[in-house]
Automatic annotation (TrEMBL):
Residue span, Fe2OG dioxygenase domain: 128-225
Protein name as catalogued: 2OG-Fe(II) oxygenase
């Protein structure tokens, strides 16, 4: 397991190349240091680190996910109950429970590989987190609608780090006022850091992609205020 401590080639260039497609700007590479300092109306405050996890690290995580108690929960939308189009699990420190559409989900203790990934985010990218939402999209029919992760229990000005495993899917972000859209084709092993300002000014979604037949798993590491709803 010393594997997660290994160095990665963060010196590889991340040129900013963007072109129009499907009404969304396609972000090909994002400079992890500078992008979020540029005009935040045009450039979402994110860093995209491709190949954050090695093939071996992805495999370790993938094997562990097979044992997670992933569930399809029901949420209320306009007074009606709907099953979410994916399965999910929530892990975190004691008191770091999850509140979502009238649901209270207690944090499960950190599994071994997931806790190592949390440490790697801290050591490599100074991402502080005490909880993580795991979403599994069985295939391209599973999805997540437009939202911002702006719950009041999230620590002000904290970053949210998103790690992807499995199938490549488009992750789309949209500016709340200008409606500018940017598309990131996230691949297995990629890390996308959503910096402060992102949830305030932008929404994000994972649209259906009916041609995708393989599962995708996503981990969003969050820093929340413990015992917020006590
Ligand atoms: O699966 C993804 O990439 C997005 C997940 C997400 O937005 C969330 O968990 O809040
Ligand atoms: Fe989100």
């Amino acid at each position: 397991m010393a594997d997660l401590q290994q160095g990665f080639d963060f010196d590889a260039p991340y040129p900013e190349l963007a072109h129009e497609q499907d009404n969304a700007i396609v972000a090909q590479h994002v400079n992890p240091l500078n992008n979020h300092q540029i005009d935040q109306q045009i450039n979402p405050p994110v860093s995209w680190i491709k190949g954050f996890l090695s093939a071996k690290q992805q495999q370790l995580l993938f094997n562990e996910v097979a044992h997670y108690p992933l569930e399809k929960v029901a949420i209320e939308v306009y007074g009606k109950q709907h099953l979410i189009p994916r399965t999910q699990a929530w892990f975190g420190d004691v008191g770091c429970d999850y509140h979502y559409s009238k649901l209270h989900i207690s944090a499960l203790p950190w599994p071994k590989v997931l806790s190592r990934l949390r440490l790697k985010l801290l050591s490599d990218h100074q991402i502080q987190s005490n909880s993580v939402l795991v979403n599994r999209y069985a295939d391209g029919h599973d999805c997540m609608g437009w939202h911002s992760d702006d719950e009041p229990e999230i620590v002000t000005n904290s970053a949210i780090a998103s790690v992807t495993l499995g199938a490549c899917r488009d992750f789309i972000v949209r500016h709340k006022e200008t409606q500018t859209k940017v598309k990131y084709a996230l691949e297995s092993g990629d890390l996308l850091i959503m910096h402060p300002g992102m949830q305030q000014h932008w929404q994000h979604a994972l649209p259906k992609r009916l041609k995708v037949t393989e599962p995708r798993i996503n981990f969003t590491f969050r820093h929340i205020i413990p015992h917020y709803y006590r």
